[in-house]
């Protein structure tokens, strides 16, 4: 319930506190960052709200780049997430941009990450998060999370 100061309700103070608590709990979103980076930050918040623990953001090496690496502690599962942000209201789906070549690069980068961290025996999953974020808005319009969006592809594909 907002406080009463000088006879005027201060709803704005309540909203600011809610925003501060949300940032403290789930991580901040930099309003001055490019749209793609803001989309990754919003996707990281989304994963944290679902109970996942985000280990790395924008993990890259010569094998490629992975937007988010998260872990589901209950399921003992590593999640490699690709985030695609659409900054316009034109028709089209951000997840359509994750083609087979992109999937191969993500798979290669995931394999290199698992080798580097000595986690080759862990189960993993590849997710895609689609973020719609029209440029002047402070928060995204919507986020869609596609769990197990694709299997490991390419020469470095995983064996079961």
List keywords for this structure.
alpha+beta, two-stranded antiparallel ribbon, 32% strand, single chain, 3 helices, 5-stranded mixed β-sheet, Trna Endonuclease, Chain: A, domain 1, globular, 30% helix, 2 domains, 160 residues
Description of the structure:
With 160 residues, the protein is of the alpha+beta class. It has 2 domains: 30 residues; 117 residues, Trna Endonuclease, Chain: A, domain 1, CATH 3.40.1350.10. Helices cover 30% and strands 32% of the residues. It contains 3 helices and 7 strands. The longest helix has 17 residues. It starts with a strand and ends in a 10-residue tail after the last strand.
Shape by Cα distribution: globular
* CATH class category name of the largest domain: Alpha Beta
Biggest pleated sheet: 5 strands, mixed
Q: Mean pLDDT, as a whole number?
A: 84
What's the total helix number? 3
Low-confidence stretches: none
Secondary structure blueprint with pairings:
Elements: E1 4-5, E2 8-9, H1 11-26, H2 35-49, E3 53-61, E4 64-72, E5 77-86, H3 100-116, E6 123-132, E7 142-150
Parallel strand pairs: 5-6
Antiparallel strand pairs: 1-2, 3-4, 4-5, 6-7
Briefly, what is this?
The protein has 160 residues and is an alpha+beta fold. It is built from three helices and seven strands, in the order ββααβββαββ. Helix content is 30%, strand content 32%.
